Amino acid sequence: MTALTWVKLAHTIVFVVMFAAILFLLYGGLTNQLSRWTALAFGLISVEVVVYASNGFRCPLRTLAENLTPEGQSVSDIYLPGWLAAQVVAISTPLLVIAGLLLLARLLGL
Predict the structure, then answer these.
(1) Domain range holding 57?
(2) For the chain, what is the domain count?
(3) Can you say how many angstroms the Cα of residue 97 is from the centroid of all Cα atoms in its chain?
(4) 10-68 pLDDT, tens per residue?
(5) Are the beta carbons of 81 and 12 closer than 8 angstroms?
(6) 75 or 83, higher pLDDT
(7) For residue 104, what pLDDT band results from cuts at 50, 70 and 90?
(8) Which own/partner pairs from 74-83 qualify as long-range (CB within 8 Å, at least 24 positions apart)?
(9) How confident is the model over 92-105, as a mean pLDDT?
(10) Cα-Cα end-to-end distance for the chain
């Protein structure tokens, strides 16, 4: 396997885990089922947000994939359809905000 293939595979795995964590937080907020798993999902997402924000709101794996892609070729940094890969932030950010607000409301007893 090439280095680019490993980066794409790692990025895909990270995406699946992080998106599952967002959905889990959303589920916990909707159903008021808070547990240690909720805390773990929150911790994972927190690390992801810090990494993303500290890199100028750009995924470091994307930058790595760009550096590994031969010049003149289009960059593909994840094993998702292009249309979906282009919308990951636009889809996941509102879901994360909603989940966060729901969890905060649950924690405050609202």
Answers:
(1) 3-107
(2) 1
(3) 13
(4) 999 999 999 999 999 999 999 998 999 999 999 999 999 999 999 999 999 999 999 99
(5) no
(6) 83
(7) very high
(8) 76/8, 77/7, 77/8, 77/11, 78/8, 78/11, 78/12, 78/15, 79/8, 79/9, 79/11, 79/12, 80/12, 80/15
(9) 96
(10) 51
Q: How would you classify residue 12: left for phi > 0, otherwise alpha for psi between -120 and 50, otherwise beta?
A: alpha
What does the alpha-carbon distance between residue 37 and residue 22 come to, in Å, rounded to a whole number? 12
| pTM, rounded to two decimals | 0.90
Residue 51 to residues 48, 71, 88, Cα–Cα distance (Å):
5, 27, 16
Contact yes or no for 96/46 (Cβ under 8 A):
no
> In 10 A of CB 23, how many CB atoms?
15
Give the pair of three-digit tokens for residue 49. Answer: 């947000």
69 φ, ψ (degrees, to nearest 5): -80, 130
